[in-house]
């Protein structure tokens, strides 16, 4: 019978904390938690420094910032020595398994496993149903997918050379989506809505839009003045936003993409209106 896959986590930031909790919740054996400055313990497991870590688990899971991954792989390789039979992964959405060349040179198989989820704080996020983008050496992918399913996840494979584009899309779908929502809430506040009402207002529209997108797709969820081709209404938007250049730029960029990719009416008229955007007066 195949031995159960066990894990050692290196780094306990926002994601590492959720991963550790996910291992305990799903019954994935967590051998040790490695941190820079041990100060407590995690569950029944003490947190240990890299110098005191055994790092003998089947899977060593690096959970640190992108710009720290390669240097940490160097340290692990020096500390551990021969890593034949072990797997080392990191969780960057943008970087590939090439960041782990140091441990690969001492015998480890390497890959990357990026969770499709937002981890804004150290408060653990439940991992059940989380998707994961997986890439790395072909011979370990099935093992990683088995581990992720044990965590309650839904793995999918991504080509290494396309990870940076994939991560740009993920950034659009989460932190920059939050940026767009924040800009919308700011416009609502400028229109006179109290802050809490503005946030509720944006949340109500945003949730309905995402729900429709998931149920019906983008084309069947599109509505509003661009869908109707209401040139005069959009012109009013651009005029009033002339007093707020950054918000106007955000609106215009999103409008241009909508005009080219979504089912709008009077497309040529909308294109012409957007081309004239810099010439519009700043006040109504």
Write up this protein.
The protein is of the alpha/beta class and 284 residues long. It folds into two domains: 7-161, NAD(P)-binding Rossmann-like Domain (Rossmann fold, 3-Layer(aba) Sandwich), CATH 3.40.50; 173-279, no CATH class. The protein is 46% helix and 14% strand. It is built from eleven helices and nine strands. It has helices spanning 14-26, 69-80, 101-105, 141-150, 163-173, 175-190, 195-216, 225-228, 231-241, 245-261, 267-275, and strands spanning 7-10, 30-34, 41-42, 45-48, 59-62, 87-90, 109-116, 131-136, 154-157. A nine-stranded mixed sheet has the order 3-4-2-1-5-6-7-8-9, with helices on both faces. Helix 1 links the parallel strand 1 and strand 2.
User: Which ranges are low-confidence, i.e. pLDDT below 50, for 5 or more consecutive residues?
Assistant: none
CATH topology of the largest domain: Rossmann fold
Strand order of the largest sheet: 3-4-2-1-5-6-7-8-9
Shape category: elongated
Our count of domains comes out at: 2
Quick one: biggest sheet? 9 strands, mixed
Overall residue-averaged pLDDT value = 92
Quote the beta fraction: 5-15%
Number of helices in the DSSP assignment: 11
CATH class of the largest domain: Alpha Beta
Helical fraction: 40-55%
- As a whole number of angstroms, the C-alpha radius of gyration is 24 Å
Overall strand count: 9
- N-end to C-end Cα span: 75 Å
Name the CATH architecture of the largest domain: 3-Layer(aba) Sandwich
Q: List the quaternary state of the chains.
A: single chain
For the record, what is the CATH homologous superfamily label of the largest domain?
NAD(P)-binding Rossmann-like Domain
Assign the structural class, choosing from mainly alpha, mainly beta, alpha/beta, alpha+beta, or little secondary structure: alpha/beta
What is the chain-wise order of helices and strands?
A: EHEEEEHEHEEHEHHHHHHH
